[in-house]
Amino acid sequence: MMKPLMIAALALLPLPALAAPAEDGIKKAWVRINPAPGRPAAGYFVMINGPEADALVAAEAPGARIELHTVAMTDGVMRMRPIDRLALAPGETVEFKSGGYHLMLFGLTAPGKTLPVTLVFDSGARRTVEAEVRMAGAGPR
Ligand SMILES: [Cu+2]
User: Model-level pTM?
Assistant: First the structure.
């Protein structure tokens, strides 16, 4: 006689146990278009790693070739340079922003209001986010 009652009780339970931790993921993604012809666009976002160590190794978007860039002081001048990978500690948050880590998107032409950007990780995970497309001069949200 108890069984129908238990099933009814289970049906009332929420389902978050199956989902990934609510906090991890890619947030606030946007792409800054450079108005100068032929100049690359830049991509920014906040990345919150999951519970395992991982590394960002590539990024992809339709119609673009993307490099991972960092900015470092060289001979007293801030210069950006490509990096092959960005190691991520468990639960680490990394902000890609102007003056720091960023994506460089080459060959992007006539983007729409948003651009699907896929981040590729050493673990094999791939995360696609819709990045908001904004013109140069626009600050962070
Ligand atoms: Cu760059």
Answer: 0.78
